[in-house]
Specification:
Luciferase-like_dom; oxidoreductase; eight-stranded parallel beta barrel; CmoO-like; alpha/beta; Bact_Lucif_Oxidored; single chain; monooxygenase activity; globular; 9 strands
Length: 330
């Protein structure tokens, strides 16, 4: 297996016995270690109305992470465009790019990242929530960075301070939009592993060179939990599995301890769901993760592999990154 560029996707998980502030401090610590370990970029994701996630305001979190590091690229994985007017996003990320030139990524998603009621509370009207609005709003956002708004509005900061814009997705639709616009594309393998290879093939087949990008460029984001043994990795993964089961049931909670997760009386359906989510991801000892990564890289051939390590303890998250980097050789 040849070496691959490695990056990090973090959700700033809130522990069951801790605060959002504790979670954000842990994420900052993780970003610093990722920089020391040589990871290319560190992204945080926008989610709302979820007690277990503290990264609801990516632009604010990224300002702190960029100021706390010096080399690693920091960005959103992603900002959910249906929740925000494009001008606001352009000004926020234009400000970040102005403060930290050449280090800011703006990953854009087309889902709200929350439930419909919360999505309406965020946007206040339904105009930006319609699926067919996304290409228009994405084009408008990029236009603000390049001074091309037809109404003569100037995003300041924003104009001439364009971060690297990415399109995120878990389907063929997002892949094709990224290809037509000539944008780099990040696929959420940790959400939709069965769609990964097909979506990346669509992106590459339909890619049109742009002033942003001359050739296709892809990231695959995968769940990655690596420990000294397979059994320890499974123990660390139990809170993640419980969190997804609670989210699926409409009852999102803060991240349980491994002991709490192990004691949870899950149903057969929840156990099957956890097994399905584990399939195709990276979980186990270094030898196990090395083999899993080889399969994933052979099937998808991404330019970068982005690791999402959703475990309870920050020391275990850092250790997982170290072991995964050494196992994969990034």
């Amino acid at each position: 297996m040849s070496a691959v560029t490695l990056s990090v996707l973090d959700l700033a998980p809130v522990q069951a016995d801790a605060t959002a502030g504790d979670a954000l401090h842990a994420t900052t610590r993780l970003a610093k270690h990722a920089e020391e370990l040589g990871f290319r970029r560190f992204w945080v994701a926008e989610h709302h109305n979820m007690p277990g996630i503290a990264s609801a305001a990516p632009a604010v979190v990224l300002a702190h992470l960029a100021a706390s590091t010096s080399r690693i690229r920091v960005g959103s994985g992603g900002v959910m465009l249906p929740n925000h007017p494009p001008l606001v996003v352009a000004e926020q990320f234009g400000t970040l790019e102005s403060l930290h030139p050449g280090r800011i990524d703006l990953g854009i998603g087309r889902a709200p990242g929350t439930d419909p009621v919360t999505a309406r509370a965020l946007r206040r009207n339904a105009e930006g929530l319609a699926g067919d609005s996304f290409p228009r709003e994405l084009t408008s956002l990029i236009g603000f960075f390049r001074g091309a708004d037809p109404d003569g509005i100037v995003a300041s900061p924003g104009r001439d301070a364009e971060p690297q814009v990415w399109l995120l997705g878990s389907s063929g639709y997002s892949a094709q939009v990224a290809a037509v616009l000539g944008l780099p594309f990040a696929f959420a393998h940790h959400i939709a592993p069965d769609n990964t290879a097909a979506a990346l093939a669509l992106y590459r087949d339909h890619f049109r060179p742009s002033e942003t990008l001359s050739a296709p460029y892809t990231i695959v984001a995968a769940s990655a939990i690596c420990a000294d043994t397979d059994a320890e990795a499974d123990r660390l993964a139990a809170p993640r599995d419980l969190a997804f089961a609670q989210l699926r049931a409409g009852r999102p909670q803060a991240l349980a301890t491994p002991e709490q997760a192990a004691a949870f009386p899950g149903s057969d359906a929840e156990r099957r769901f956890a097994a399905q989510r584990k399939a195709g991801q990276l979980q186990g000892s270094p030898d196990t993760v090395r083999a899993q990564a080889a399969d994933l890289l052979a099937a998808a051939a991404p330019d970068e592999l982005m690791l999402n390590t959703l475990v309870y303890d920050i020391d275990a998250r850092i250790r997982s990154l170290e072991l995964t980097r050494d196992a994969i050789g990034g």
